[in-house]
């Protein structure tokens, strides 16, 4: 398998460190999963309307400013491969998190099996999406929850280079912890990097086991330029 394929880079990642970072911070950065050429290819999809099932202008719904588009099935080849390749690396971590937080649902070994579960429950609309931000655009803090079956992680890929293609527009992650003050992180990303982050909550160890800290993510205001991101959400929508 050629070195520049996303599957090769995903397989080569330090997944023990990814799990450690997710458990400590609620996110983990996987550097250089996509080549610059692949990033440009994916960003160019934004203008190919036939690839998408819907377009959302954030300002209309008080989500922020900017726009995003949900892909339709069948997904573009690289998007489907990213979803298929990341899921089996994350599913065992997801099952350990659910066990720690005493959440009953467990996740099967492959994404095809999980998608069947989603579709049987009426969650049949694909959720991978492309987002575009321009000057003064931003995204409010939120969680991507689309139905009863929620995979606890998602991946975000930055498709442009900060400082060259845009200024501002940092990825923000906030955590609300019932036992200590909340916190916020700016997640550092370069073109081609991915971040895996907790969709809803993460387990936090205490003297009596684990409790849940709740997380949200968003994007700070873009000062200039243009910023595209690819979002890989593993559960489909109702």
From TrEMBL:
It comes from the Bacteria. InterPro entries: DUF2086. It holds the Pfam family Oxygenase-NA. This is 2OG-Fe(II) oxygenase.
């Amino acid at each position: 398998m050629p070195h520049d394929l996303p599957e090769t880079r995903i397989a080569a990642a330090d997944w023990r460190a990814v799990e450690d970072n997710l458990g400590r911070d609620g996110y983990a950065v996987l550097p250089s999963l996509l080549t610059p050429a692949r990033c440009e290819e994916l960003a160019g999809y934004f203008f190919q309307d036939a690839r998408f099932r819907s377009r959302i202008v954030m300002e209309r719904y008080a989500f922020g400013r900017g726009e995003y588009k949900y892909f339709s099935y069948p997904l573009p080849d690289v998007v489907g491969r990213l979803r298929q390749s990341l899921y089996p690396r994350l599913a065992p971590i997801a099952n350990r998190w659910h066990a720690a937080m005493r959440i009953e649902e467990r996740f099967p070994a492959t994404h095809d099996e999980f998608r069947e579960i989603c579709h049987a429950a009426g969650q049949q609309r694909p959720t991978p999406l492309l987002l575009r931000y321009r000057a003064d655009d931003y995204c409010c803090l939120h969680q991507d929850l689309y139905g009863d079956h929620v995979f606890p992680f998602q991946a975000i890929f930055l498709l442009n280079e900060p400082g060259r293609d845009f200024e501002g527009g940092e990825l923000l992650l906030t955590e609300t912890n019932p036992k200590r003050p909340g916190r916020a992180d700016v997640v550092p990303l370069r073109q081609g990097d991915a971040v895996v982050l907790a969709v809803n909550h993460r387990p936090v160890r205490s003297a009596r086991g684990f409790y849940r800290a709740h997380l949200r993510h968003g994007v700070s205001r873009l000062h200039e330029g243009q910023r595209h991101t690819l979002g890989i959400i593993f559960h489909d929508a109702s």
